[in-house]
Amino acid sequence: MSKNHSTRHRESLSHDTGRDLMREQLAHQAARLMAENGITDHAFAKRKAAKQLGAPDTQHLPSNQEVDEALRSYRALFQHEHHPIILNQLRKQALEAMRLLEPFYPYLTGSVLDGSAGEHSDINLSVYSDDAKAVMMFLLKHKVEFESGEWRTQLMGRQQTLPSFTLQSESGVPVHVAVMPENARHNGSRKPESHADIAAVERLLTSSDEQL
Questions:
Q1: Is the backbone of residue 160 left (phi > 0), alpha (psi -120 to 50) or beta?
Q2: Which of 27, 48, 78 is the last residue of a domain?
Q3: Which tens digit of pLDDT belongs to each residue from 72-99?
Q4: Domain tally for the chain?
């Protein structure tokens, strides 16, 4: 390796290390903002973190997953007394909604499943039906208060807009229900760590109840 090439290589490594360190610092700062201030919008938390760290124009923002990992670490370290109780309550509310929606094969997703949720977090569910109106009629039949909306997601390799419903629970925690097409339930794209059916949520609650 020539001297010049070696120097360029070291400079590149130094640049990459600095970039990775910035991403890590931003992830932890965004996580702290979400945990302490009740922020639920990842993009807003990251922008605010960048501004606070003196890098408002940085292009090296962490991913949502990196922030969630930092958020779980933060809660485990600084909120270990009350966070498990809050998370347990959210999962019980999610399970109640899932049992109601059982005919549509509900799955729990998002922060309530991965453990990064806090007292200001919403509950996110996916159900499967090619007829969103059938889901709506089901909710009306069971006298569930809800608002209709849309949910944008990456599905089967492309960006799609899907119908959704936001259920109003007695606790005041919104339950967002995205209506996925039937074929998405059979394509094997769901990952166990990102989607949990009723049985999986029941196991999570059994495990957490034993630890509380």
A1: beta
A2: 78
A3: 898 888 888 888 999 999 999 999 999 9
A4: 2
